[in-house]
């Protein structure tokens, strides 16, 4: 009995000594955690202020993600130092090793989601387009109606809403038609072989100058581009103001109507495919100039 009591006393004394020895370490560990928590909170608020000053327009709340990331990193650093002070670094190493394996497995499983989220972060930072811009992404042409962490929602001209993964934006090419507030129209057509080409050019450019949507300071270009099978092909280029796709369509529509009417007044023919039948040995025979005798 005395031996049992003696062992209990020894255990109690050893426990008291260990507690007394670890109290300073425990207090120091708590102070380290509090100090790093204060630093983490300060850095978080600083990140929010800097981000809002640099990026005034933000849709994804990326500033909160970045600030929270810095907060977690500094707070975790304080916890690691505190555990090291208490001598618990070995269990921590095993825990981190297990977390690393889990992280690798999760990385493979969620790589596409992570890629889209990172691309969403780049979209928010770089700002290649904004809500309301007319864009063409991965063959989808329309207006941007929403930008999220994973996708960009585009409302196409036919009226469908298309959700485009953000990683596609940086894996390929895309076009933002709203960047300059203007857009170039390229109209292609052709006239017949019998028309005066100088007159065709003068009439076409004169009609373009009369439309309301035209930006005259950008200039008008007219070029004959090829001698086709039955036409002289030409290209007419001009700039119009662009706030929506309707501006582009109106600029194209107005010129087509004007050129068609003016060409009719000037006797200019908008050519269509013509096939020549060669009934003679040289040059062919005009069916209306010479009677054709068919022998039975």
From TrEMBL:
One of its GO terms (cellular component) is plasma membrane. Its main location: membrane. Keywords: Cell membrane, Membrane, Transmembrane, Transmembrane helix. It comes from Zhouia amylolytica. One of its GO terms (molecular function) is mechanosensitive monoatomic ion channel activity. Residues 190-270 form the Mechanosensitive ion channel MscS C-terminal domain. The chain crosses the membrane at residues 26-44, 65-86. Residues 112-178 form the Mechanosensitive ion channel MscS domain. InterPro entries: LSM_dom_sf (IPR010920), MS_channel_C (IPR049278), MscS_archaea/bacteria_type (IPR045275), MscS_beta-dom_sf (IPR023408), MscS_channel_2nd (IPR006685), MscS_channel_C_sf (IPR011066), MscS_channel_TM-2 (IPR011014). Belongs to the MscS (TC 1.A.23) family. It is found in: Cell membrane. This is Small conductance mechanosensitive channel. It is a multi-pass membrane protein.
